[in-house]
Specification:
The protein has 346 residues and is mostly helical. It is 66% helix and 3% strand. It has one domain. Keywords: Cell membrane, Membrane, NAD, Quinone, Translocase, Transmembrane, Transmembrane helix, Ubiquinone.
Length: 346
């Protein structure tokens, strides 16, 4: 029962923490865009507009939930749930720190250390597109259907290089467990570089971060919800908390992908050239490992915002061309080179 109790506490903590981060990111997005564009941004609701996400949440909860007359009611209701649930569930296999020892009991800072962590992430990432397609089709709106079709095409085009980039990392580390991969990134590489995945898989990291932006439907790959072309795409007809689930799901997906990037390529909770466990107590070390991991994730979350308000959206043919003509050949080349190096034990 104690094991189940600890697991339940970790699940509640992760879900609550993820919700808080997704809420705060709505404020960061607005303040960040204002800073980049030399505007003020939210500055009325609380100091520095910090209560703006709370005001938005109250608005979404209290607005009337309108269902279009000609919408397919079941699909319309199912779409947001299918989109948000995988985003919230994917974080279960990502370690958010090393371990903490409380009362002589060692607690791993990860909800579930499964040996198929990669496959779990890819499977749930593939499921999210059903929420977009079902919601777009169920809305019975031409713009929503176009957004759903675009999302399907993007998934087919970019899931392949996304998976191939992950497969190259599996070849390097020889495991599907994200915790084991994190532990392997301690120390140095080639005698002077941090033993991080980005130095072992530089091309793999570039492929992963590009495809991650597409997986999250973020600029320059936000074709499924391009406001200037198809109004708001797949969630055009949504309002109230149904729309909130789509918006929250997007930010949770950004958080999960950023955490996965840190886990695979940037040493997880490890600091370069420093072993925190040597000079910190068991409790302090657990907290420090969580904070280091979170600060790294914050950098990539800010990068999502920075790119959105800096880079213009690609044309649809450019997105498809980049996926099929550039990323997939590069991913196959990276996989071949990685397999060759592993085989030769270089």
């Amino acid at each position: 029962m104690e094991g189940w109790g600890i697991a339940l506490i970790k699940v509640v903590f992760i879900w609550t923490w993820t919700l808080i981060i997704a809420t705060v990111m709505t404020w960061v997005e607005r303040r960040g865009s204002a800073m980049i564009q030399d505007r003020l941004g939210p500055n009325i609701a609380g100091p520095f507009g910090l209560f703006q996400p709370l005001a938005d949440g109250i608005k979404l909860f209290t607005k009337e939930d309108i269902v279009p007359e000609k919408a397919k009611k079941i699909l319309f209701a199912l779409g947001p749930v299918l989109f948000a649930l995988p985003a919230f569930s994917a974080y279960a296999v990502i370690p958010f720190g090393d371990k903490i020892i409380i009362g002589g009991k060692e607690i791993i800072l990860q909800v579930s250390d499964v040996n198929i962590g990669f496959l779990y992430i890819i499977a749930l990432g593939s499921m999210a597109v059903y929420g977009i397609v079902v919601g777009g089709w169920g809305s019975n709106n031409k713009y929503s259907i176009l957004g759903g079709l675009r999302s399907t095409a993007q998934l087919i085009s970019y899931e392949v290089p996304f998976g191939l980039a992950l497969l190259a990392a599996v070849l390097v580390y020889g495991t599907f467990s994200l915790r084991e991969i994190s532990l392997m990134q301690q120390g140095t590489f080639l005698g002077f570089l941090p033993n991080w995945g980005v130095f072992k898989q530089p091309l793999g990291f570039i492929l992963f971060i590009v495809t991650a932006y597409c997986e999250a439907n973020r600029v320059p790959f936000d074709l499924p919800e391009a406001e200037s072309e198809i109004v708001a795409g797949y969630h055009t007809e949504y309002g109230s908390m149904r729309l909130g689930l789509y918006l929250f799901g997007e930010y949770v997906n950004m958080y999960t992908l950023s955490a996965l990037m840190v886990t695979l390529y940037f040493g997880a909770w490890h600091l370069p050239y420093i072993d925190m466990s040597q000079f910190l107590g068991p409790v302090a070390y657990g907290i420090a490992s969580f904070l280091v991991f979170f600060l790294k994730v914050c950098f990539f979350l800010w990068l999502f915002v920075w790119v959105r308000w800096t880079v213009p959206r690609f044309r649809y043919d450019q997105v498809m061309g980049l996926g099929w003509k550039s990323l997939i050949p590069l991913a196959l080349l990276n996989l071949f080179i990685t397999a060759l190096f592993v085989q030769l034990s270089i």
